[in-house]
Design the sequence.
């Protein structure tokens, strides 16, 4: 019982620390009695430590992913070997093809795979792989909070200033177009349901080769499925032209 109370107190302390950091990034907190402006805070904090300021979950996917990030962040911070999963450098795409609960896939790849498979509108392999790759890397960053995990996120998905300054639902952070993210944060009356169907059924990825070539199968035990490095580079160099809401 004593151990349970101690862990509970540590969890509460971690949540307070995380909230305090976000407030400092906003310029609403104090550090040694000095009030920081948001511009000063952004300059003083490395980009990989500037996590978007999210509200409470507003949809099912946010509930799943925010809970996942919070619990894994706490485990990673505690550093308990039995609790901290191995975060692979590349997401394991096996989760897109295997929905069994006992599958041998890391937790990050698994939870993202379950979400991607739930959207029937994401109906081609290049789309599914691209969304899984991007979401997995974006999800890993706030857990590890490292420069390496931040740099694995494509440039066009890294937070805009408004994502660090204004509370907003976390689903907005997963939208690939920076201008659309900014617009949605400035117009928070637009909810997830209003946007999700149009987004998942309308985005297009140009890949003029065999769709099956976006993945490769590894030869290690378990036969994981990874993104083809050529397709990965193609995704990271995407030209994002979007005129919605402008």
Sequence:
């Amino acid at each position: 019982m004593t151990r349970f109370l101690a862990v509970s107190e540590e969890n509460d302390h971690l949540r307070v620390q995380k909230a305090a950091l976000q407030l400092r990034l906003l310029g609403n907190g104090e550090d040694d009695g000095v009030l920081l402006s948001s511009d000063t805070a952004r300059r003083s904090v490395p980009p990989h430590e500037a996590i978007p300021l999210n509200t409470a979950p507003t949809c099912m996917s946010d509930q799943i992913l925010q809970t996942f990030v919070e619990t894994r962040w706490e485990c990673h911070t505690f550093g308990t070997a039995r609790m901290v999963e191995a975060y692979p450098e590349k997401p394991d795409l096996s989760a897109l093809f295997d929905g069994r609960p006992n599958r041998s896939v890391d937790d990050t790849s698994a939870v993202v795979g379950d979400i991607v498979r739930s959207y029937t509108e994401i109906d081609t392999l290049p789309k599914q792989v691209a969304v899984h790759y991007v979401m997995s890397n974006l999800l890993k960053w706030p857990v590890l909070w490292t420069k390496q995990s931040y740099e694995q996120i494509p440039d066009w998905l890294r937070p805009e200033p408004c994502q660090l300054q204004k509370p907003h639902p976390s689903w907005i952070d997963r939208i690939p177009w920076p201008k659309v993210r900014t617009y949605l944060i400035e117009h928070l009356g637009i909810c997830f349901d209003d946007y999700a169907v149009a987004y998942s059924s309308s985005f297009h990825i140009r890949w003029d080769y065999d769709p099956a070539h976006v993945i490769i199968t590894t030869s290690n035990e378990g036969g994981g499925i990874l993104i083809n490095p050529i397709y990965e580079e193609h995704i990271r160099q995407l030209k994002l032209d979007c005129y919605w809401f402008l």
The first helix runs from residue 2 to 26.
